Amino acid sequence: MGFPHPSHPGETVVLSKHFGDAGARTHAGWVERGGYEGLRKALGMTPEAIIEVVKASGLRGRGGAGFPTGLKWSFMPKDDGKPHYLVCNADESEPGTFKDREIMRWTPHALIEGCAIGAFAMGVERCYIYIRGEFTEPWAVMAEAVREAYAAGTLGDNAMGSGKPIHITLHRGAGAYICGEETALMNSIEGRRGNPRIKPPFPAAAGLFAMPTTINNVETLAAVPHILVRGAEWYKSLCKGNPKSTGTKLISVCGHVQRPGNYEVMLGTPMKELLYDMCGGMRPGRTLKAVIPGGSSVPIMTAEEAESALLDYEGLIEKGSMLGSAGMIVMDDSTDMVYQIMRLARFYAHESCAQCTQCREGTAWTTRILERILSGKGKESDFDLLLDLADNMTGTTICVLSDSCAAPVVSGIRKFRGEFEAYIRRERAPVLELA
Amino acid sequence: MSAGHVVDAEPYEPVFTGETMAELERRFAEYPNKQALLLPALWMVQERRGWISESTISEVAAVLGLTPAYVKGVVTFYTMYHTHPVGRHFIQVCTTSPCGLCGAEDTVRALLEHTGCGEVGATSADGRFTVVEVECLGACGFATPVMVGDDFIESVTPEKVPELLARYP
Ligand SMILES: Cc1cc2nc3c(=O)[nH]c(=O)nc-3n(C[C@H](O)[C@H](O)[C@H](O)COP(=O)(O)O)c2cc1C
Ligand code: SF4
Ligand code: FES
Question: Which of A145, A371, B28, B53 has the most CB atoms within 10 Å of its CB?
Fold first, then answer.
């Protein structure tokens, strides 16, 4: 539901059904609401059969890349005698995204259950949930839920009486956006600086502690118990657009809408319905100017593109952007696009791990040029310089943080060039003073 | 505040003794090697001492079988570890775009004024508060989120600042 708002009839409430219901947080409360049935069912199946169900459901990764989850799970080696790991990515730091936080705060056992099913399916005995350091409240709720799950025998050396060991350890981050990148996150758990690793090797071959590892987002894992209980066909039927985009998705909406919050919709729902019916549209007297639909790392959409888009993986690619983590940043006609793009570039410059020259230098340089434009000292040649930098920052680095900084700059210049020109041609008063 | 040359009070009292050491040792069972306990051990230090000094870096290194230089390299990568003392209440305010669109900069100004910190990164003269700007706190729909120590407060506006600060003597 559009938490903290009541559910809207246009939503399809699966993951968010118990948001705001403190009774669902306890082990007993979760069981009363039908919880741990998915795990019970999974423990009676073969690991291969579980992976087949997840594959057939069409579930795709909710952390940003949209990779098919069942297929990812099937890459894990079988009977290789090595320890395997499942890592849950609860680093949620992508500007605009705040959904995993609510899953952990309200339905911690849904995540524990999803982790346990994944662990059993992939021959994992210990799963790590990496929670960003600032999430103190979700941490406390998760810690209590894990404690209860052990006390109830749901986790432990003989999980739910199955004879199989399934353990979960919570691991706290310490402030670094880049640790959301999967290999940086693994380094962070290993007690290293959070630098992304060069791939290959891919995590399924050599991930955490150099062992076969699968990493999944919180929302991805929380969807798995529902799929086990209600079946792949049911999950596949939750689809309004392209059949390659199935299930429900939590869309975090922030910025200039009347009712920001987390809305759960079937993939393929028109963005217009979300923005105007569910979120109540713009503030009085304001009109939509732009939307960044997938967390800050995806290309900016104009109002026209946004209003005609379908919210799914293919629908947003068709409009030149991406679904990403579905953190939607909504901007109305009062927004200074140049300033916002500078602020995003500054974010990436701050968060670059600095291993790759193109990213370290490119994010900092891009920020400085945008600051200069905003201070009234821009030049016409800055367009070429920014686009040339963006070109050098795309597809050339160890991870895609560098590309993420370039995306809003390139789309911003293409779609809102006039706003840059107004500063450069001194038609608009500077808003920054450079030291 | 300038980081300068900050040292612990002498004589140095180790953190990892008695129950604290026992707690760390219990956690060894959850990881295949000791190095993986580095972030957890640093959190244990910061929870008990408020910041991470050169002396505790050496102690953590010895406890986990690492070198002090290695530990320092890790500590300085992460923004939440304090390498010098901070105010009694450490305040983090998000100013990334989504919050900026909804007035985060006004909230920062109000916090700087009412805490007496004056500027971002500074500690108030009475040692009560330090205010810093941080990047996205993962609560963008509830602008402006503010953390005071471990407390996470949503939807802070300039008007709510005096009442909020009064809760942290
Ligand atoms: C710079 C960067 C930051 C990322 N941050 C996150 C994050 O905070 N949470 C997340 O789940 N995935 C994040 N990802 C994506 C992960 O690398 C990975 O694709 C994801 O956790 C896989 O899970 P999924 O298949 O369930 O989506 C990030 C990627 C990059 C490049
Ligand atoms: S692209 Fe940037 S963040 Fe990613 S590995 Fe290279 S320097 Fe680090
Ligand atoms: S941008 Fe402020 S919490 Fe995300």
Answer: A145
| CATH ID of B89-166, from 3.30.420.40, 3.40.50.2000, 3.30.565.10, 3.40.30.10 | 3.40.30.10
- Helix and strand counts by DSSP (H, E) for chain A: 17, 11
Q: What are the tokens at B65?
A: 């079988």
| A136 Cβ under 8 Å from any chain B Cβ | yes
CA of A345 to the centre of ligand 2 (A): 14
Contact A264, A376 (CB under 8 A): no
Express each pLDDT in B91-149 by its tens digit. 999 999 999 999 999 999 999 999 999 999 999 999 999 999 999 999 999 999 999 99
Question: How many other C-beta atoms are found inside a 10 Å radius of the C-beta of residue A188?
Answer: 29
Rounded to whole angstroms, the Cα distance separating A39 from A117 reads 6
What are the start-end ranges of the E strands in A4-104? 84-90
CB of A389 less than 8 A from some CB of B? no
Measured at the alpha carbon of residue A245, what is the angle toward residues A47 and A180, in degrees to the nearest 5? 70
Tokens representing A165 are 């060991």
Q: Using alpha carbons, list the distances in angstroms from residue B49 to B8, B40, B147.
A: 10, 14, 19
**Strand ranges across the sheet with A124-131:** A167-172, A124-131, A84-90, A213-217
| Ligand 1 neighbours by CB, cut-off 6 Å | A 61-65, 67, 89, 91-94, 178, 180-182, 215-217, 220, 399-401
Contact A342, A374 (CB under 8 A): yes
What value does the mean pLDDT of chain A take?
Answer: 97
The string over A222-242, giving b where at least 16 C-beta atoms fall within 10 Å of a residue's C-beta and e elsewhere, is bbbbbbbbbebeebbebbbbb
The first and second tokens of residue A245, run together, are 């985009």
Q: What is the ipTM of this complex?
A: 0.96
Domain locations in chain B?
18-77, 89-166
Token pair of A295 as six digits: 């967390």
With H, G, I as helix, E, B as strand and everything else as coil, classify residue A239: strand
Residue B7 binned pLDDT confidence (cut-offs 50, 70, 90): low
Chain B residue at shortest CA distance from A352:
B77
For atom 30 of ligand 1, which residue has the closest CA? A181
**Whose structure tokens read 């450490």?**
B90
Return d(Cα B78, Cα B101) in angstroms, integer: 27
- Taking alpha carbons only, the member of A405, A328, A257 closest to residue A96 is A328
Q: Tokens 């350890």 map to which residue? A: A169
pLDDT value of position B5 = 54
Report the candidate in A262, A252, A264 with the shortest Cα–Cα distance to residue A223. Answer: A264
Q: What number of other Cβ atoms are within 10 A of residue A425's Cβ?
A: 10
Amino acid at A140: A
Is A96 in CB contact (< 8 Å) with chain B? yes
Tell me if residue B161 falls in helix, strand or coil. Answer: helix
